[in-house]
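Re: beginner question about structure tokens

> Can someone show what the tokenized structure looks like for a real chain? I only ever see the sequence side.

Sure, here's an example I had lying around. Input first:
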Amino acid sequence: MKTATAICDSQRWLSIVGIGEDGVEGLSSVAQHLIRSAELVVGGARHLELANSLIQGRRLAWPSPLSGAFDEIKRLRGHSVVVLASGDPFHFGVGKQLAEFVPAEEFLCLPQPSAFSLAAARMGWALQDVSLVTLHGRPLHGVIRHLHAGNRILALSWDGTTPLRLAELLSARHMGQSRITVCEAIGGSRERVRHVAAAKFNIDDIAALNTIAIEVIVEPGAAIAALTSCLDDAFFEHDGQLTKREIRAVTLSSLEPRPDELLWDLGLGAGSIAIEWLLRHPSLRAIGVEGRQERAERAARNAAALGVPELEIVHGRAPEALAGLARPDAVFVGGGMTKDGVFEAVWEALKPGGRLVANAVSIETEARLAEYFNRFGGELIRLQVARADKVGTMSGWRPAMPVTQWRVRKS
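And the corresponding structure tokens:
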């Protein structure tokens, strides 16, 4: 068994200590020793109060934003510094940010059970079967992608108003029978666990520190985003400027989304490509560029309604609007490919190995894609979809406009 002296060496100068609502009583002897001997203890005001009886060095409450304290932590490199955090610092906690400037071999992390672990234990839920969401400092609509019949969700609240707002969202989406459990100050002497149906939400006096458990019950008429690669067109509000479902499926396949990648969607329109990209994996990012304000606003509404409010939208036209944007891993050009300078700006910004996909319905844009295909290679394909429609008293095939797609990888 490791002792405090054995693991608190000079190399590991930073200690990240998880602390729960039970305060110092829940801390190991090692964690208590580290706090007592620290020259500087950093944490939220609540954390500092919980560990008050142990702190002998200087205290620093987190400023807003937290990064305002990072320079002081760096300045004391090699000295004993403790950062207090809620539960598990590396599960939606400050650990990730600290590890960006402190090497792993220079810090020691002593986690406690996270709010998720404690809430799951109270509910009798297996964590691996639960969707874990944080609404702390993030848009409420981010939970929408997890709203499937029978799904179980644990969500970290922003404050005491979050449970009511979440109940209202569920009710508005025809999920009012869903069971909401509000867990407050879990793990401490003030712990309180209360249950209610979303449509009958009447819980008041909710502590700011709370975790919400949701058992999703779907009513008839609820809009549920399926786990398919592409959604029905009816999910998107649009003015006709929409990459239709079948073409969208091929386009997403050509873009090849991979974790942690960034997409540029030029000519955003209703936002369907960027939104579908974001729905593939929570680590994906997307920037949509749209020249028309009403379309940019419509795309933002679609993104929120489908649970990806993190879609970044730039109101402007390429290539001018591309200046200063983070370099993309993939680019979709749904409009503006005939404008001089657009391809050149995109190709210059695209990372090596990145994918460019452009769709064309006009003869002029198709001719431009054929020119680029001859110069840069890749694949040039034509897609066409026909739908059955009434022809008098019978049915026949009514073809949509063909779409020419060029897809190429930057070597």
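Each token stands for a local structural state, so reading them left to right follows the chain. The first helix runs from residue 4 to 7.
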